[in-house]
User: Fold this.
Amino acid sequence: MHYLDHAATTPIPHEVAQAMLAVLTEQFGNPSAQYPLGQEAKALTERCRAIIAGAVGCKPERLFFTSCGTESNNWAIQAAVWHGRHTGRHIITTAVEHSAILQPCKWLEQQGYEVTYLKPDRTGHVTVEQVAAALREDTVLVSMMLVNNETGCIFPVKETAALLREKKSRALLHCDAVQGFLKVDCDPVGWGVDLMSFSAHKIGGPKGVGALYIAETLRNPKPLLSGGGQESGLRSGTEATAQIAGFAKAVELRMENLDEKLAKMAALKEYCRQKLLTIDTMVTVGEGTAPHILSLSLPGYPSANIVTDLGSQGICISAGSACHKGKSSHVVSALGLSKRTAAGVIRISFGPESSEADVDALYEALREHKEKRFPML
Assistant:
């Protein structure tokens, strides 16, 4: 198998699986229990929190575990609009955010909120100037992803935080860092971001666990779930200790020689780009500079057919975000591409385990696909 869809999910290293197995079979206590087995589980959870917080650059007590990036995003939006309920009902986001942002915003529109969706240019980028033009006195939230999950474009989160400070805006800044964490610079505390979302399974961790950073300046944030008082009373529910342990181990492993891993991924991305562009009519989509995501198009050749054909050969790529399940991508639509180009968009994404052999296999399969199939548009 040639796995080139790391932006969808990542393989779990053996060490991560072993860390989870130890918790499942030996350290399985409930962290809320008062006897030693439970207190050992509590101590383990806090050690893991400290490890992940260290990579995020925040205090452990400002990092709260969730079940996934989607939950973190939803919680962030709920907390932000609650915090600003006396300020206004205006939200700024981008037209190319993950659905975990766009769908809650659409729901809020139904509740009377006004949402400004910043449209990217043809390269896939949005600018801080667009945020400045949209900012209003009644803006309560700006939500901007760190790395777009389909184009690999890095968005101006740091600059947006500075803008909000300069304008003395009361709006909170949320960043969906699911695709950017341990891939590009990510410093919520130093930048002045109020809320930032993370997910374990994009960096070699298990599915079913994520985290939300909440800045100290956000006092008394709205709890996501009420109940037994876990996560400082903000997200009740028995902690998923095995997933949390896997998350922490994945962070530890990814942090080892991180610069070398990122440089390898960036070099492989460029190797892939140059090689695939030798296929007649293949074009680049967007100008993303994140080291792990490459978006291309074979105009006129439907991406769903490409993905299915290559998948039957053991080559795993995506026709955009894995969350779209074959539906047209709102990200591709926002770029204003021609119908033929939009139909043929594919996403290739890399991890530390990816190799030139994976790219070479992809190249041969794409070249053969083009030769044996006629364009449908």
About this structure: Residues 165 and 241 are 38 Å apart (CA to CA).
